Amino acid sequence: MWNGSSVRDNVPSQVNYPKGLLAGQVAIITGSGQGIGAECARLFANEGARIVISNIDPVRGQQVADKINASGGMAVSVPGDLLKDENITNLVKAAAEFGHGKIHIIVNNAGFTWDAVIHKMTNKQWDTIVALHSTVPFKLIREAAPYFRVKDGEPRNIINISSTSGLHGNPGQLNYAMAKAGMAGLTKTIAKEWGPQFAVRANTIAFGHIETRLTASKAAGAFVEVDGEKIALGIPERQMQTVGDPSAFLDIPLRRPGSATEAAGAILAIASPLSSYITGQTISVTGGMNM
């Protein structure tokens, strides 16, 4: 009952947030050798999770695992191209061994863009991006099903990473937009199939402009290889916006791009027990863009 004191008088001087939000859980994070995935791995490890680093580049993946282990966390790197089915099988097997027979979290984060306007997009561009951003997450979830369809009282969580391109479309990114749009349907179906009996939560996070190699200038030289072909990553220099430019980021109410740490923080928030009653949702993390 209110006793006449001000609201401010009733606010504690220090708020103590819970520690170890993911204590004892085993998390597979794909594409975690750099960028959002690496930050997600670091934040999850800080909250007590055992991290399975999945990355196509074994050196980058091992570097992330080494940093986590050196800081007192627990991580293992399981490299491999997830477009190859045997690497998905190996990833789940290794994760279950690392987790002593349990897997609690999957973050489907791996991917890149391979852009072209509709009439110039090749079958290879279409097939590769749709497979990487839609088929690979499905196959990984299917492979890990025995570790999620369980009734042991422990939380299970799947987080699929999408994009505003999937929500609103984007010129030059039909393949990426198509694949990312599919994440919402994948997520809702998981929530409806595995929620009632097994209490599995599934959510999609759609990112806007986050500072990664995909939103850096192409002049920076980042690339990936697909069957020996180098695919340049990033945004053409003429389309780049500069933070100091008064016209920059006018479509974002916060007037800036997000950082990889901020993006990873959103993933942690949804994975944590603080979001235990959130499932089947697509959550936009965009600085207010497209609202």
Automatic annotation (TrEMBL):
<feature type="domain" description="Ketoreductase">
    <location>
        <begin position="25"/>
        <end position="213"/>
    </location>
</feature>
<dbReference type="GO" id="GO:0032787">
    <property type="term" value="P:monocarboxylic acid metabolic process"/>
</dbReference>
<dbReference type="InterPro" id="IPR036291">
    <property type="entry name" value="NAD(P)-bd_dom_sf"/>
</dbReference>
<dbReference type="InterPro" id="IPR020904">
    <property type="entry name" value="Sc_DH/Rdtase_CS"/>
</dbReference>
<dbReference type="InterPro" id="IPR057326">
    <property type="entry name" value="KR_dom"/>
</dbReference>
<comment type="similarity">
    <text>Belongs to the short-chain dehydrogenases/reductases (SDR) family.</text>
</comment>
<keyword id="KW-0521">NADP</keyword>
<dbReference type="Pfam" id="PF00106">
    <property type="entry name" value="adh_short"/>
</dbReference>
<dbReference type="InterPro" id="IPR002347">
    <property type="entry name" value="SDR_fam"/>
</dbReference>
<dbReference type="Pfam" id="PF13561">
    <property type="entry name" value="adh_short_C2"/>
</dbReference>
<dbReference type="InterPro" id="IPR050259">
    <property type="entry name" value="SDR"/>
</dbReference>
<dbReference type="GO" id="GO:0004316">
    <property type="term" value="F:3-oxoacyl-[acyl-carrier-protein] reductase (NADPH) activity"/>
</dbReference>
<keyword id="KW-0560">Oxidoreductase</keyword>
<protein>
    <recommendedName>
        <fullName>3-oxoacyl-[acyl-carrier-protein] reductase</fullName>
        <ecNumber>1.1.1.100</ecNumber>
    </recommendedName>
</protein>
